[in-house]
Amino acid sequence: MKLPKLKIGDLVAKVPIVQGGMAVKVSTAPLAAAVANEGGIGLIAGSGFETEELRKEIRQARKMSSGIIGVNIMVAISKFKDLVKASIAEGIDVIVAGAGFSRDLFSLGKENNVEIVPIVSSVKLARISERLGASAIVVEGKEAGGHLGTDKPLKPLLKKVVEAVDIPVIGAGGIINGKDIAEILKLGAAGVQMGSRFVASEECEVADEFKHQYMNADEEKGYLIDSPVGLPGRALKNKFIERLEDEEVTTGETCDYLCLKKCSRRFCIMDSLLKAQAGNMEEGLVFAGERAYLLDEILPVKEIINNLVTEAQEYLGGKNEDE
User: Fold this and answer.
1) Do 34 and 88 sit in the same domain of this protein?
2) Residue 66 carries which DSSP code?
3) Which of 6, 93, 106, 252 is geometrically suited to a Cys-Cys bond with 133, CB 3.0 to 4.6 A?
4) Are residues 85 and 115 part of one domain?
5) What's phi and psi for 298, nearest 5 deg?
6) Quick check: bond before 71 cis, omega within 30?
7) Among candidates 219, 311, 284, which has minimal Cα distance to 3?
8) What would the pLDDT profile of 46-62 be if each residue is shown by its tens digit?
9) 302, 320, 300: which is closest to 310 by C-alpha?
10) What's the structural domain count of the chain?
11) Do 56 and 91 have their domain in common?
């Protein structure tokens, strides 16, 4: 079996790898463009940007790459529709949406010839997405970093979804290396989405302290938080998590962001993610996948993708279609 191209509607990626859209401001234009330049699909994380900021980020990515550029926007955020419309206005190729489900998104995509790819964690939502016009779906298991829609592992869930729908299915959650990619493709997926692997890249615009959390992680440092979004979130245990456990983290009576449609106010998710992105590990929340502890080096995106493709092909016993 050869490493396939990934077809999403009218889009064709030479490499079946989607770089996860990690917020806040973890997946930005340089990372998305670098992945797109290597034949994958690069995603900018729209959540956490103001609409004009996101438009500038998309323009920057377009200047840096002629490949496939998309955005990932959380349905749970208050400016979801504004960010979607801004992305469409900038001619974005694909919109990936998770942390909730929006039926309106499908009609916006169809009206503007933009491919829509929801992130789902059940057969039911996969079928609904197909019926509403999704170009593909991302199936995310419990191994993923960030906000989770299930406590079920990816592989058995992926098998069920692949059997239930006819559109391309992209596996996500705990995919770190080429062997992982090969295993997911063998289960019938059209491609994979990877987040944590690309945090540990030179092009990812987070502070070195953030990346060092990944490099210093071990199997025991994975942690599930009760996020203000209303979903569990997978993060790395650090001083912020310890303070959260001891109930030392509070939001106060006012909010500077008003970023969520509904917020439990347990702590400020926006503030903690921004501080992590800037390198403040005392007050910053570092989301990471269940197997992020396997990462041990920070590399350029070009080298990361070359390594992934080479290893995946070895396990599949074939070569890339272009070779």
Assistant:
1) yes
2) S
3) 106
4) yes
5) -100, 120
6) no
7) 311
8) 988 999 999 999 999 99
9) 320
10) 2
11) yes
